[in-house]
Amino acid sequence: MSLVHAHDLKAFYGDAQALFGVDFRVEQGEVVAIIGANGAGKSTFLKALTGLVKVPRDAVLFDGQPIGSLPPGEIVKRGLAKVPEGRRLFPSLSVEENLLMGAFAGRPGPWDLARLYAMFPILKEKRLNPGTSLSGGQQQMVAIGRALMANPSVLLCDELSLGLAPIVIQEIYAALPRITAEGMSVVVVEQDVSVAMRVSQRVVCLQEGRVSLEGASSALTREQISAAYFGVYA
Amino acid sequence: MITVQRHTRASHAAAVVSVLLFVIAATLPFWAPQDDAPAWMREFVEIACYFIFAMMWNLLAGYGGMVSIGQQAFFGLGGYVMLMLGNFAGVNPFVAIPLAAAAAAVIAVPVSWVAFRLQGGYFAIGTWVIAEVFRLSFANMSFVGGGSGTSLTALRDIERSTRENTTFWVALVCVAASIALVYGFLRSKRGLALLAIRDNEVAAESQGIAVGRMKLAVYVVAAFGAGLAGALYFVGNLRISPDAAFSVNWTAFAIFMVVIGGIGRIEGPIVGALIFWALNKWFSDYGSWYLLGLGLLAIVVTINFKQGLAGWVQQRYGLVLFPTRRHLIVKE
Amino acid sequence: MIETLLQGLLLGGLYSLFALGLSLMFGVMRLTNTAQGDFIVLGGFAAITAAAQFALHPAIAVLLLLPVAFGVGYALQRWVLNGTLGRDPLPSLVVTFGLSIVVQNALLELFSADPRSLDSGGLNTQSLALGAVNVGVLPLLIFGVAVVCTAGLQWLFTATKLGRAFRAVSDDREIAELMGLSAHTVYALATAIAFVLIAIAGSLQAMRTTVSPSDGPLLLLFAFEAVIIGGMGSFWGSFAGAMLLGLTQQIGFRIDPGWGLWAGHVMFLAVLVVRPQGLFPKTRG
User: Fold this and answer.
1) Measured by CB atoms within 10 angstroms of the end CB, which terminus of chain C is less buried, N or C?
2) pLDDT tens for residues C77-129?
3) Whole-prediction pTM value?
4) Hey, is B328 helix, strand or coil?
5) Spatial distance between the Cα atoms of C220 and C39, rounded to a whole number of angstroms
6) How do residues A161-200 score in pLDDT, each as one tens digit?
7) Angstrom distance (rounded) from CA C26 to CA C28
8) Hey, is the C-beta of C34 within 8 angstroms of any chain A C-beta?
9) Which residue, among B117, B128, B263, would best test binding to C if mutated, counting the most C CBs under 10 Å from its CB?
10) What b/e string do you get for B104-129 counting C-beta neighbours within 10 Å, with b at 16 or more?
């Protein structure tokens, strides 16, 4: 049984349809990348998974249980956490307090402050600073750490590389193996296709609210990806 | 072919009915029974003041996006300036009414330098503090009677029925003028700019709308209207005191009328004033219970009927009597 | 002169208690409680009634009142005020203003317009000699309570899980809910705590002087002025603002009784013009 299973997922913003029947699975321990151009529906898809966009109750199954349209807090309690697009740290909280907020739902698991500081030592150094006083890359680390503190079984990452320099992106994604080491599944939403291909085992491409391509990252060719990304087929 | 529709059938009917009502009202002293006429006229003047004040509060809050609990500052100021012009400068009080309104508008400018430092809920309370400063200041001015107030002596020599008739007609004109003023303003380009500011200030600014100037303009117009209502009220009342002139109840009643009727719509204060007048007539004898009931009603309507009664009617039946929107009609 | 200054500072202590609840509610959910003053008066009347009805020592009456106030605040936020929150400040302003009118008139019906006070068991007549001056015991006590409450609230905000939740939900409600927090519950807890502070303030006001149903609006203005002068987002800032307000009023009263309140208001307006962010601002407001 897949950990996450979205079946024929349709999503609307008022009368405007954003997703037209998306099928998506995540298995235990996988790293799956979702790529697509701006407006393809990637963020909407993540919002549907985390309860921020209304979808039918059994359009999304988590560990076999229907979670569509459940309150976001409830979904986090079940083990699905998101690193939001744009980091969105709490400006009034310090780095450490931001991380502690991640543990608000109180799920037990291996991730705690000590482990996070071991993975991202710079955060320990700056733990009492206000979250928003850090550099973009460091803020991204805090955002990831905050989601990990919820001890999810599936981690969703929305556009981690946005606004970051390539060397910083590398540093962030270098932490990925440590996250998946104990079997956590990760879904990576990325506009940067090469990064997505490099870090994932499987790639799903969205184009105008539909899945246009799916396959093993190592097996797909540039031409296939290009075509699926832009919707132009030779 | 694309046309822009600015009227509805209902609005045409309403325009005709309004003119008719105006004519009927204007001739009231002539057709009403002689025993009742003075009382009716006095009641009309009073409700006219409440209504004009509510219209202006609606303009400020519903269209200008500025919720104020301190508009009574300009109401009282209008009353006092009218009285001072009448008693000390020998100006005919009826002539003094628009002058007092203008004075209120002028004072509104320096007041805005202070009030606009605040936003949202704190702006609301800040305007209340300013009104309190006005009240305390006038209460300490002995030449206008200090805390116990004084009388309007300038009208003493005029024969009573003439005074009452004139007050009534002036009130009627003020009501018509303020409706026309607000309606004309909102249908104009400035009104459109105001709606844009209300919806999204930053976006409006980026489109070239001078947000600060617009807000000041609305604040000044609202102050003018409040001053007009105040001057008119005390011409009718003949006696002024700081507590009556600067009472927060004026704003409380205005809020009530606008919320019940519907905020941000011109029909709103009209509907609200009518309901308020009716409730006042039937229930004001119950004193605090009546006021308590008004408060509860305002709470319930705000939570459940966010658009007020006029708004609810508009949503349900599409009925708009004073249309300010422009509709794009595309004919194939 | 020293006595006037001291009295002003101690008066400020009471004003800071008025201000704490207002500051808390605005800080957590951007809600301006225009009924703050009236609820303080209600708290005073509740303490008076409890002490009279059950023949209690005033301190006991107040202590028993606190959990009741907590419950009332929680229920009010959960079932009435939560529905008014949003981008538009109007609904919450109108509803709290409506509550102000309801409370004032209900008190008027129940208690008539006569001022009442809470018997403080003689505390209000006792005084302490501090060096060359005599200071009332009650004002000193009130000042102490104000310091404890301000410190307590500050501690709650910076060192507890609930305080973190308050700050997080006020920063970014959507992301806070993503972490499993229920904004509605957090808001209700904030108002519940605010009402406990209101009950304390009302009881002390009733002990220090009198309360009557129409006192509310003036108390609201004092609370508000203290918050603005001190600077938004800072409890100690409101404390300082309250003291400055108390000082100004006392000096004004000393010069001429008719100008006491006026002086306070004018000082507030002056601060607003010269330093609109307040003396010790912390947040963007």
Assistant:
1) N
2) 999 999 899 878 888 999 999 999 999 999 999 998 889 888 877 777 778 77
3) 0.89
4) strand
5) 10
6) 888 888 888 888 888 888 888 889 999 998 888 888 889 9
7) 6
8) no
9) B117
10) bbebbeebbebbbbbebbbbbbbbbb
